[in-house]
TrEMBL record:
Keyword terms, alphabetized: FAD, Flavoprotein, Membrane, NAD, Oxidoreductase, Redox-active center, Transmembrane, Transmembrane helix
Species of the source: Deinandra increscens subsp. villosa
Family of the protein in this entry: Belongs to the FAD-dependent oxidoreductase family.
Gene Ontology CC entries for this record: cytoplasm
Protein name: monodehydroascorbate reductase (NADH)
Chain ranges of the Monodehydroascorbate reductase 3-like C-terminal domain: 340-422
One example GO MF annotation: monodehydroascorbate reductase (NADH) activity
EC numbers, comma separated: 1.6.5.4
Cofactor: FAD
Listed transmembrane segments: 444-464
Lineage: Eukaryota, Viridiplantae, Streptophyta, Embryophyta, Tracheophyta
Organism superkingdom: Eukaryota
Domain FAD/NAD(P)-binding: 6-320
InterPro entries assigned to the protein according to its UniProt record, in alphabetical order: FAD-oxidoreductase/Apoptosis (IPR050446), FAD/NAD-bd_sf (IPR036188), FAD/NAD-binding_dom (IPR023753), FAD/NAD-linked_Rdtase_dimer_sf (IPR016156), MDHAR3-like_C (IPR048618)
Length: 466
């Protein structure tokens, strides 16, 4: 049994949805493209699962958050795929790939042949068993990667109202889930080994703001230790957790957010790898010229930092997918991908965005006892990153524009004093007098790219639930 397609997207997540829209825009013919996904639904905006989907009142549900609502583009319902002649092969896992024969074998025994393949298999949640602890299959232990995880989590939250939850992990998933649990009237203890939350991005000072805010909502932080084992009742339900520091915590439910791993195993030994992902060039082409890789699994060149990275964030999934399709469909008109890393999160009434790189010296700014504050990162004398909580659209657009230029900064005190107004003022000057920007004594703008045009990466945050 087999079918042939000119273009196959393997994976049905964020990148797949944005790739499909781009294929449609570029005029793919009916019957040429298929998406194969082991999920039972058409591509959707995954970030909604830890935000709008978990709200106690008026939660987001499909079809409300199918891609590409997160970027204010068309919302691609299953009907949209039918209308565009794009085949959705859902609930179907690909179990092996042969890059020489250009075939994929599905768990249902079908062989699918492609001319061009886009790998968009994303990442999976790391399981407790991978850190030597049993219990993933217990009915009250939850992960959060896909719709079925989110549905289980919602059901558990409903059953545990007024009870206790342990959140294992202090990263994105842990922080967003802890907020949702509280909003669903569940007492939360967060357990993680670091000395502060979101250790890969936050500074201790930024983390302390969020921890205090969470504490004010009733969340307890148990830091510097980790889970040793889960305790079960006779029905196999978790009733508590032993921690490595000897403490015991009672639990009605557990949420595990201990990281993610890229889904790349189908291609190991067949394609070149880097940073744990599939190595691609600036057109997202892998070491095999018929195969492209996008989203969480792609290790791609970041021109701005002269580096190659894998970025597990939704903005990168959206943009890498679009770029790869452009490269496939119109190779003569494509320019090199020039990405400015952008991450965001929202929980409770808080909302932050980060642009660039968090390396070098940190300069905090703003009102850490209020609602608007942030930090700049200055590396080798250049502004390379900016974090802002509580900003407005104008602030974030300015940050994206200015960080992309990597201006040379001579006076760190000026960054601290002016805060976000610093980048806003610089971006306004850029807009008014692009060719001969007046250089302030303390600040020189260094043009990273030739010419003046700055492609500000405008945040995709218009939808409340995405
Ligand atoms: C709960 C949650 C909240 C998030 N919130 C944010 C946020 O606020 N901000 C942010 O920047 N990022 C966020 N992210 C990260 C963001 O969602 C990911 O970076 C993005 O989804 C990556 O897109 P992708 O298409 O590469 O992978 P995915 O969206 O994960 O899609 C991969 C798809 O491939 C399928 N698949 C994998 N292997 C196979 C196979 N062998 N056969 C068939 N199908 C397969 C998977 O089932 C899935 O459908 C969040 C992630 C999660 C899980």
């Amino acid at each position: 049994m087999g079918r042939d397609f000119a273009y196959v997207i393997l994976g049905g997540g964020v990148a797949a949805g944005y790739a499909a829209l781009e294929f449609a825009k570029k005029g793919v013919s009916h019957g040429q493209l298929c998406i194969i996904s082991d999920e039972p639904v058409a591509p959707y905006e995954r970030p909604a699962l830890s935000k709008g989907f978990l709200l106690p009142e008026a939660p987001a549900r499909l079809p409300g958050f199918h891609t590409c609502v997160g970027a204010n583009e068309e919302r691609l319902t299953p009907n949209w795929y039918t209308e565009h002649g794009i085949e959705l092969i859902l609930g179907t896992r690909v179990i092996s790939a042969d890059t020489k024969l250009k075939t994929l074998l599905t768990a249902t025994g079908e062989t699918i042949t492609y001319k061009f393949l886009i790998i968009a298999t994303g990442a999976r949640a790391v399981k407790l068993e991978e850190i030597g602890i049993n219990g993933s299959n217990a009915e009250n232990v939850c992960y959060l990667r896909d719709l079925s995880d989110a549905t289980k989590l919602v059901n558990m939250m409903r059953m545990c109202t007024g009870g206790n939850a342990i959140v294992i992990g202090g990263g994105y998933i842990g922080m967003e889930c802890a907020a949702s649990l509280v909003m669903n009237k569940i007492n939360v203890s967060m357990v993680f080994p670091g000395s502060y939350c979101m250790g890969r991005l936050f500074t201790p000072r930024i983390a302390s703001y969020y921890e205090e805010f969470y504490k004010s909502k009733g969340v307890s932080f148990i830091k510097g230790t980790s889970l040793s084992s889960l305790v079960f009742n006779s029905e196999g339900k978790v009733t508590g957790a032993n921690l490595k520091d000897g403490r015991y915590l009672h639990a009605d439910m557990v949420v595990v957010g201990i990281g993610a791993r890229p889904n790349t195993n189908l291609f190991e030994g067949q394609l070149a790898f880097e940073n744990g992902g599939i190595k691609v060039n600036n057109r997202f082409q892998s070491s095999n010229t018929s195969i492209y890789a996008v989203g969480d699994i792609a290790s791609f060149p970041i021109k701005l930092f002269n580096d190659t990275r894998r970025v597990e964030h939704v903005d990168a999934a959206r943009k890498t997918a679009k770029h790869a399709v452009h490269a496939i469909m119109e190779p003569k008109t494509i320019s090199d991908f020039d990405y400015l890393p952008f991450f965001y999160s929202r929980a409770f009434s808080l909302s932050w965005q980060f642009y660039g790189d968090n390396v070098g010296e940190v300069v905090h700014f703003g009102d850490f006892s209020g609602t608007k504050f942030g930090a700049y990162w200055v590396n080798n004398g250049r502004l390379v990153g900016c974090f802002l909580e509580g900003g407005g659209d104008e602030d974030y657009v300015a940050i994206a524009k200015v960080v992309r230029l990597k201006p040379v900064v001579l006076d760190l005190g000026e960054l601290e004093r002016k805060g976000v107004d610093f980048v806003v003022a610089v971006s306004q000057k850029l807009a008014v007098s692009p060719p001969s920007l007046p250089l302030k004594k303390s600040v020189y703008l260094w043009y990273a790219a030739s010419g003046f045009v700055v492609g500000a990466s405008v945040a995709a945050f218009a939808y409340w639930h995405v």
